[in-house]
Specification:
two-stranded parallel ribbon; single chain; 9 helices; mainly alpha
Length: 278
């Protein structure tokens, strides 16, 4: 599983050349992760599984490129129909893991692109404030409006939520390692060390049951929400507030330190209203 990664776009690129370079780097990382996944499948299940996965991938690729040519459709249909239950499960898991890894690589490169080309002057909030000022709206009115903002994202949970924190934690670690590997100052020895650690995590993911077989209770749901709070919210919200304060300072105003424009709510544990599936 080493080529034809999902098509991606980079709207933050400053030029066609930058976009091409960023896309090439992303595809390189996806190919490397796909190759590592393929090696893991061989180590754990032998060449047969990887050969089947590659055959399905090639047939699906040909169908996409050829617009559904009858021969490829029939061959792919026959191949999948002949798979027994265990083979089908392994195929689904292999492609699921591949797309997990591809998504991780895409997220890492997206963040890098934003950090390189997406300075605060290019942020949506900064651009909006500047447009309001240019249109003649007094900065004091803009600041008053911002200080009245009350944005309340709500965390919810669902009894059919299948993702497990053990899988999410491994993907988060792989994301850190992919980012670490892309740092230009890393030596070949450093990159090999990172690759070995990624190999270990990929094998651990394959050996981890990805689907919950027991119904989560409110404590499970709360822990799931806390995972996202710790992974994203804890760092992102203070940074966002700092950026908002800096933009207002640029127009001679300030963000009220006693105001919290972003507050979080949750429905976790609060929607058990008699639904037998909850």
């Amino acid at each position: 599983m080493s080529d034809d990664p999902p098509e991606t776009a980079d709207p933050s690129a400053n030029s066609a050349e930058d976009h091409t370079g960023a896309d090439a780097d992303l595809r390189t990382d996806i190919r490397r992760l796909g190759h590592q996944l393929g090696n893991s499948l061989v180590r754990q299940h032998g060449e047969t599984l990887l050969e089947t996965v590659e055959k399905v991938r090639r047939l699906a690729r040909d169908l996409r490129k050829e617009g559904g040519r009858e021969g490829s459709t029939a061959e792919l249909t026959r191949l999948l129909a002949d798979a027994d239950a265990d083979q089908a499960i392994q195929l689904v898991r292999a492609f699921t893991m591949y797309f997990h890894l591809a998504n991780v690589a895409e997220q890492v490169h997206r963040i890098e692109d934003l950090n390189i080309g997406g300075t605060r002057a290019d942020s949506h909030f900064d651009e909006t404030v500047r447009r309001l000022v240019d249109s003649g709206i007094p900065p004091a009115d803009i600041a008053a409006l911002v200080n009245r903002v009350d944005f309340q994202p709500v965390f919810t949970a669902h009894p059919t939520e299948a993702s497990r924190r053990s899988i999410l934690n491994k993907l988060a670690r792989i994301s850190d390692l992919v980012e670490e590997r892309t740092e230009l100052w890393r030596t070949s020895a450093d990159q090999r060390r990172v690759d070995r650690r990624i190999d270990e995590l990929i094998e651990a993911m394959w050996q981890t049951d990805e689907i919950r077989h027991d119904r989560p209770d409110p404590f499970d749901e709360a822990r799931f929400v806390l995972y996202y709070v710790n992974q994203a919210v804890r760092d992102a919200v203070p940074q966002l507030l700092d950026d908002m304060a800096a933009v207002l300072e640029d127009i001679g105003e300030r963000l009220d330190p006693d105001r919290s424009p972003i507050r979080f709510g949750t429905w976790v544990g609060g929607d058990r209203d008699g639904n037998p599936n909850v």
